[in-house]
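Lecture 7 notes: from sequence to structure.

We start with a single chain of 414 residues. Read the sequence below before looking at the structure.
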Amino acid sequence: MKTLALILAGGRGSRLDILSEHRAKPSVPFAGKYRLIDFVLSNCVNSGIFNVGVLTQYLPLSLNDHIGIGKPWDLDRKYGGITILQPYTGKKGGWYKGTAHAIYQNMSYLRGMNAEYILILSGDHLYKMNYDKMVEDHIDRNADLTIAAQRVPIEDASRYGILDTDKTGRITDFLEKPDDPPSNLASMGIYVFSKDVIIRALERYCSAEKSDFGHHVIPPMIENNEVYLYEYEGYWKDVGTLKSYWETNLSLTRPLPELNMYDDDWKIHTKSVEKPPVKFGPNSKVNNSLLSNGAIINGEVVNSVISPGVYIEDNVVIRDSIIFNDVVIGKNTTIDQCIIDKEVKIGKNCLIGVGDDLTPNKKKPDLLFNGLNIIAKRAVIPDNVQVERNCRIMSYTRPKDFEDEKIKSGSTVE
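Now the structure, written as tokens:
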């Protein structure tokens, strides 16, 4: 069977706040050396799918640079391989206005591909899944559309499209992000269409204004087509919030994490950064942590994720934190419950994440409320600064922007 995978990778990821200020959500770093999109790309090639289109839109430069010609995933092929599909001007061109509209805008590409089945994927979810089994299930049921779904905690169900089925597995109802979800069977945003079916559906249900699969395509297809459930019981996370992103990263430091990245039978491929080996100084201590190539550790790291090229000076203590590439942390500094973006410089004798005051961030109270601090790309923090909880330090902040050495809980420094 011939399957074309189309990865929706143009989302901003606004609930990740300043982590997606300079990059699309699928390009956000994860587990030190990876990007979020690495997992779906690896799933494709591990499933034997080598025809892949990646639809980008929001701040695509970082994502395009990471994917390149697809060589790390064996997608640099003369026939098939990877194609970057960006918005264009011209006949029927323009910005993508929804998930279905993005596919609709690339109808000529879709028609021209020699594929029988179209696999629609999100570029920012974490999981390991054999798509080939889902396509086989789609064929066996003679389905027009198959939707992958999983049970989620009921308190999180309002973040997802919620399904209902009959005894045969046929989907009878679909509610997109309901305020009061009737069940916890959540769509994973993974769809298998027969090619002729998706072309007809997009032509019938898409408009020039805005078209999403959840709102505009799936509900009428449930009424008029054979739409079935594919229930997936393996590991799957949508790290769509700062809290879930932080928790999911740190879960990898456990002795036996749910997401196994050490499985030789299902490798997670990525574009690796060429750096020397990790180096430990004479007084360094590391417990329950992930360390990436090029890091130099002279202090103490506990339950944290350290990315390539991070430099940690003497008497530094890092706890429950995620440190992105090429961050420099000065002597005698303590960092607790933080996410620090690329190329940040933190001075000496700083306390980042201190105290018990959990006042939510005044500008983003719905995003920062559990004591986590976020420091954006290339910020420079001077010596002797104390940052309490739920604070945001914005990109390119300089020492002159710190009017006080003590940053109160809930503050934003710009």
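The first strand starts at residue 3 and ends at 8. Keep this in mind for problem set 3.
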